[in-house]
Each structure stands twice: as C-alpha cells, then as structure tokens.
Write a structure and sequence with these properties.
The protein is mainly α. The protein is built from eleven helices and two strands, in the order βααααβααααααα.
C-alpha cells in the first residue's frame, strides 16, 4: 500500500527510506546535475499570501496560455510589482520548480510498504499517473523549459540557472527496491534507467500527440511497458544464473576426468584412450611394452 506518511517505511533488506536513497545510483557515466529545489515559501502572513498569489497566477497562466510566463508577466497579472515578484521568484526556473513541486508534491512523498517489487511499481503507476494527467499542462511546460534551456546552454546563451528535472530517479529507486535480491546491480541499474523513460509526462507527449490515444490508454500502455521491462530483467537474471551454474558444473566435471584415477585429459575434456601413449611411443621408434596386468 502506498501512503504519503511523513516518515516512509524502511526497506527490510537495507534499512533505508525513500529520503535516504542517494540522488543517483553509482554508474560509469558522468554524475547527474544537481536537481532544482523549490524556493521555500515564506512563513509570515503577508509575504506568504504574496508568494501564493504569484504561484497561483503562474499556474493559471501556464494552464490557460500554454507556455511558461516570464516573472514580469506573472507580476503583471497578479498586480504585483516586478521587484516584488523577482524577490520571490528570481527566474523562470525558480517559478517552474515551485509550480511542479506544488503539482507533484504528494507524488514525491509517496512511500510503499508493499514487499513485492512488481506490485509496488504497479501501485506507483496507478496512483500517480492520474495526477500527471491533472497537471499535464504544467508538466509539459517544465519539459518545454528544459528543452529550451538545453539549446541555449549548448549555444552559450543561457542567462538563468537551468531547471533540472529528475525526482523520478529517487521515486523509482524506492519502487524497485524489493527486486534487489533478484537482480545483479548492473541489471537493476538498467531496469531503473528504463523505467525512468516510461514514468512521467513523456508517455502522454508521445502517445497522445503522435498516436492520438486517450488518457486511460496512455496509463495502460505505460504500465504494460513497466511490467514488460521487469519481466525482461528477471528473465535475464535467471538466464545468467542458470548459465553460471552450468559453467561451474562443466568445469568441475572436467577436473574430475573420466574416473580412471589419473585425471588427465586430451585437451578436449576427454581422457585419452588406453594404449594411446604407447602407440605414440611406437610411432616414434620406441618399442611398445605390454600393458600391466592391472590396466584393463
């Protein structure tokens, strides 16, 4: 069962909670950029209300206008001075970070005590994809901003701190934690990477924009892909394990020879036939001797 308890349950095999997991799993690739963290809302009454007014205005503009507004545009629509707005949200990245945190805050705090990895992933998809749909315009806007900033950063023209997505890494790490005993670390890491492709707003963008599928079918296909990836990882782990056991058995059998007590082989895992050494000796001009009476 997935809950939004303030203290997530510990994993029985690691003693870790969702918040204890590292921001990225060890890998040979370069380290992932630090994720964008939302600005902390003010606690004082007037400042808190102004902050909420600006945030609500930004969310409304994204939903109705279909793009990420500038901080100045949010200030205009909220009837707040630009200077005040920039004190709360100094950039579009800060604004969209707060928007997404408000939209997906409950998703990021989800914790499950389900002991089966496949069931935990299913719970995650079924509980969070409806929220992706509810805040689809805001999630698309966040993806749009990352693409725009990537191009600007590549051209050396980016003039604001980039918005970095990636909280799904920690969420999925918690979801697949029960599969750890069944998967080698490298295979588990590959499954983690693959699931991050199908978990989020991306399936909506592809399956709705290209295929014209309804929201419910997007959810079904995303979960189907997740199950297929888990099945593939488990099959590969089982096949590797079986191959390893078979290889160990073959090596052990070869080392024992064919049971004649000398343990010698001909290089192919076979013991030489009786008298083979004697025949080689005769071919070289050495008289062959009669085998001892005990060599039958």
């Amino acid at each position: 069962m997935i809950s939004t308890a303030s203290k997530p349950p510990q994993e029985p095999h690691t003693g870790q909670t969702l918040r204890d997991y590292p921001q990225h799993m060890p890998a040979k690739s370069r380290a992932r950029p630090k994720l964008s963290e939302p600005p902390k809302p003010p606690e004082r009454r007037v400042r808190a209300s102004t902050w909420k007014l600006l945030l609500d205005t930004g969310m409304r503009l994204i939903k109705t206008h279909g793009h990420i507004p500038s901080v100045a545009e949010v200030a205009l629509h909220a009837n707040v001075s630009r200077a005040t707005a920039y004190r709360y949200f100094p950039s579009r990245s800060a604004l969209i970070t707060a928007v997404i945190d408000t939209s997906l805050g409950p998703v990021r705090s989800l914790a499950s005590d389900t002991p089966d990895g496949r069931d935990r992933v299913r719970e995650l998809f079924e509980d969070t994809f409806p929220r992706f749909k509810e805040y689809e315009p805001h999630l698309r806007a966040a993806a749009q901003l990352t693409l725009e900033q990537w191009a600007l950063e590549r051209a050396g023209l980016l003039q604001e701190e980039p918005y970095r997505r990636g909280h799904r890494v920690r969420i999925l790490e918690h979801a697949i934690a029960p599969l750890a005993p069944q998967l080698p670390p490298a295979l588990r890491r590959r499954l983690h990477h693959a699931l991050s492709v199908v978990y989020g707003i991306e399936p909506y963008i592809i399956l709705k924009d290209i295929w014209g599928l309804p929201d419910r079918e997007v959810e079904r296909i995303a979960l189907w892909m997740a199950n297929a990836l888990i099945d593939s990882a488990l099959r590969e782990a089982q096949a590797d394990g079986a191959a390893g056991h078979a290889g160990n058995g073959a090596v052990a059998g070869a080392s024992r020879g064919n049971g004649n007590g000398n343990g010698k082989t001909n290089g192919k895992g076979e013991s030489p036939a009786p008298g083979a050494r004697r025949r080689r000796g005769s071919a070289a001009g050495t008289p062959a001797t009669a085998p001892p009476a005990t060599d039958t």
